[in-house]
Sequence to fold (151 residues):
Amino acid sequence: MEWLNGPLVWAIDAWHQPLYLFPRECPRIVIWQVAGSTADDWHAWSDGSAARMIAFIEEDWADVVRASFIFRYELPEYGFQPLGDAGMWVSNSMAKPLAVEMIADLPAALKGQEVELRLVRDLGFLRPVWSSTLHASGIRLRNASSWSLRG
Fold:
């Protein structure tokens, strides 16, 4: 899969788009249930939330998230290949957007996608979630206050 290091257009499917409703460099961990997830694990990590996803960010990023906006590009479906990982798709051809939307209230956009946003002092306490039956997605963790890739 060396071709993934070349110039590509990256896209995300609609169900997984909440993973990217954050400023680009914001470290976050997003969890959700998958087939095989246990009610005990969901309750332990979400406190029994009714949300479809829980997004954790550090308190130091809260003002940045509230003040930021992003642009969401709607891309044509043709020409993209699924990567089979959390709804990611890639194309090695240029893709002309069908529409562009500015999302100015990121917390409201997350809530509209049934995602509960939680502020934590640091993301380190979430390391064990990867050993649970839940799906955990960590993005830009190198920017977290106390995260080390060595764990």
User: Anything to note?
Assistant: The two ends are 26 Å apart (CA to CA). The chain has one domain: 8-143. Residues 8-143 form one domain.
